[in-house]
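Severity: low
Component: inverse-folding endpoint
Summary: output formatting inconsistent between runs
Steps to reproduce: submit the following structure tokens with default settings.
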């Protein structure tokens, strides 16, 4: 029996009606299940032919596609003008919906990069986010430690801004010790012009791009020019810098006799999934490497895994090299190559090497990928065993009806009742499910703080949203952990019972790390709740899991409270300036980002903000000087 035969008659008729409407145009298609969740995203040169092939009984599908087709209850499509546009759209749709039957680059937003900011005096910073802000990005790097180590090296070699602050080049303060140590050009004191600083930044960009030979040639020319002009002190400083840079560059491995910029990709697979290894070779030298894990790739052929990785990785990669080396041929090589050329704005070739240095590079990447997959599999197995033990401990100690898979944690944050907020954090399978996190601005705001009433409000709103069918709160947890003791737990239970849902709850007392457990699932109003204290060993998996959840709820609540407090302080300070109303406040904060940045800006820069006048700009400067 085919997967199509498993559909109900109504679903089959609905699908067949839509199949008849499909155009013979390029575009993307989305398969959805009965709940409207996207199961799979694909692209086609002719939508009509490609999509219909999934539902023909004569078509032989892999097990993965057969399972997917059996769950399809609806489909949508988007028509575009070319196959290239379809490829770009497909990448964006997969990133947005993360369909379970697509091969997906694991949604790890923690890749570390180095960025050179787009400012008059650019800063060189650690970042984990790629933004379309005109800045230059280099990476990803293997670890945060590697980035910090590289930044330390850069600050030793080049006189960059070491304090991390943004400066306009005007004299705003006296130069600090870094200037006197010749490790900063002191734009904060007006001692550096933008042209001089731009030369330093260009040298840094060459260094980070792996173009060390070009950098050395540039510095050597400058050194010789300085010597000819009898500027011996400057020539000596350049000589020392040149020696230091050459020493650092000598540590980079020379992998190829060809001075070409290339990315080398290899893939290895096992039952758990696939690992991709990237080697970043610039000018023939290895400047970095990175491992990537892919979800939904267990029974997918290697060529399809590589193809999907290339599309998803380069959709957001900060740099496209001259050459991309692959371990296997991919079906869409020509169109992907054309897409990469458009992204780079220059020549890009995708090659599958058959011998020589290039094949040796792919083999080297494959060895690293194999090690990465083994390490990831071992780590995953250890995590799984640890979580199963934690589940078992909590189920036994708390007398739960089953092992808790989804656990929610709640906390309240305020300072003497001001700007109270609540947080809801979620762990599924022992890992944070950050897309499920929720924040609450608490409406109950009495003259004296009442954490119990605030906790009750947060849980009431959470449970009511669930009862009303709000998709943001569509799942009930197996266990709720409240940060606090009997008072907070009692308030949470009142909220739960008022809405009429059934969820086990416990409190985690701060001082002794005791779990507070209600003796009755639904206490009577006359007697009120009764509790027992459960003490687990401090390092036991069950308690460690609950403590992690509690600490994450605390962090999430505090970060939200701090954001509101800072925003409130900024608005309050600006509100006191005559002539600055809500619109001007909003434009000022949107333009400069913070009160401190407005304080550092000149009156001319403030006056350039839309709706602002020079007179009001002077008033803002005078007021913030006193604030």
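Observed output (run 2 of 3):
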């Amino acid at each position: 029996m085919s997967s199509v035969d498993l559909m109900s008659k109504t679903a089959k008729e609905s699908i067949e009606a839509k199949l008849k409407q499909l155009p013979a145009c390029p575009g993307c298609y989305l398969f959805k299940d009965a709940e409207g969740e996207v199961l799979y995203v694909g692209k086609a040169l002719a939508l009509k032919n490609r999509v219909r092939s999934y539902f023909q009984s004569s078509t032989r599908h892999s097990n993965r596609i057969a399972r997917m087709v059996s769950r399809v209850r609806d489909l949508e499509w988007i028509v575009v003008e070319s196959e290239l546009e379809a490829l770009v759209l497909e990448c964006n749709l997969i990133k947005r919906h993360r369909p379970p039957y697509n091969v997906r680059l694991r949604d790890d937003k923690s890749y570390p990069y180095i960025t050179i900011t787009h400012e008059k005096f650019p800063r060189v910073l650690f970042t984990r986010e790629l933004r379309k802000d005109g800045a230059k990005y280099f990476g990803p790097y293997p670890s945060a430690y590697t980035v910090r180590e590289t930044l330390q090296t850069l600050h030793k070699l080049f006189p960059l801004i070491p304090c991390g602050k943004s400066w306009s080049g005007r004299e705003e303060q006296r130069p600090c010790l870094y200037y006197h140590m010749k490790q900063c050009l002191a734009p904060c004191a007006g001692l550096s012009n933008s042209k001089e600083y731009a030369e330093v930044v260009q040298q840094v960009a060459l260094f980070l791009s792996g173009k060390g030979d070009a950098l050395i040639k540039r510095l050597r020319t400058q050194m010789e020019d300085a010597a000819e002009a009898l500027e011996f002190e400057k020539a000596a400083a350049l000589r020392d810098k040149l020696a230091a840079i050459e020493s650092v560059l000598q540590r980079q491995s020379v992998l190829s006799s060809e001075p070409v910029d290339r990315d080398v990709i290899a893939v290895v697979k096992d039952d758990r999934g696939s690992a991709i290894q990237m080697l970043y070779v610039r000018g023939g030298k290895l400047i970095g490497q990175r491992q990537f894990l892919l979800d939904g790739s267990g029974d997918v052929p290697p060529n399809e895994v590589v193809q999907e990785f290339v599309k998803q990785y380069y959709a957001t990669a900060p740099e496209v090299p001259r050459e991309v080396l692959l371990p296997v041929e991919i079906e869409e090589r020509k169109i992907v190559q054309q897409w990469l050329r458009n992204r780079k704005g220059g020549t890009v070739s995708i090659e599958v090497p058959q011998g020589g240095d290039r094949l040796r590079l792919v083999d080297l990447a494959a060895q690293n990928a194999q090690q990465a997959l083994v390490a990831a599999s071992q780590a995953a197995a250890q995590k799984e065993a640890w979580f199963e033990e934690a589940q078992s401990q909590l189920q036994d100690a708390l007398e739960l009806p089953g092992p808790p898979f989804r656990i929610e944690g709640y906390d309240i944050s305020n300072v003497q009742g001001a700007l109270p907020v609540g947080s809801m954090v979620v762990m599924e399978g022992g890992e944070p499910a950050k897309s499920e996190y929720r924040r609450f601005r608490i409406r109950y705001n009495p003259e004296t703080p009442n954490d119990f009433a605030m906790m009750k409000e947060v849980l009431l709103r959470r449970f009511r949203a669930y009862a009303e069918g709000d998709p943001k709160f569509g799942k009930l947890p197996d266990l709720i952990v409240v940060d606090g003791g009997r008072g907070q737990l009692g308030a949470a239970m009142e909220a739960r019972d008022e809405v009429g849902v059934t969820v086990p709850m416990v409190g985690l007392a701060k001082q002794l790390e005791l779990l507070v457990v209600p003796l009755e699932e639904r206490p009577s109003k006359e007697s009120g709740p009764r509790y027992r204290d459960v003490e687990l060993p401090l390092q036991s998996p069950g308690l460690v899991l609950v403590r992690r959840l509690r600490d994450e709820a605390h962090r999430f609540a505090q970060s939200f409270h701090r954001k509101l407090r800072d925003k409130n302080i900024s608005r309050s300070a600006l509100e006191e300036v005559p002539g600055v109303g809500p619109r001007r406040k909003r434009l000022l904060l949107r333009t400069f980002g913070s009160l401190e940045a407005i304080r550092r800006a000149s009156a001319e820069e403030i006056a350039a903000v839309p709706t602002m006048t020079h007179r009001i700009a002077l008033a803002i400067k005078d007021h913030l000087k006193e604030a």
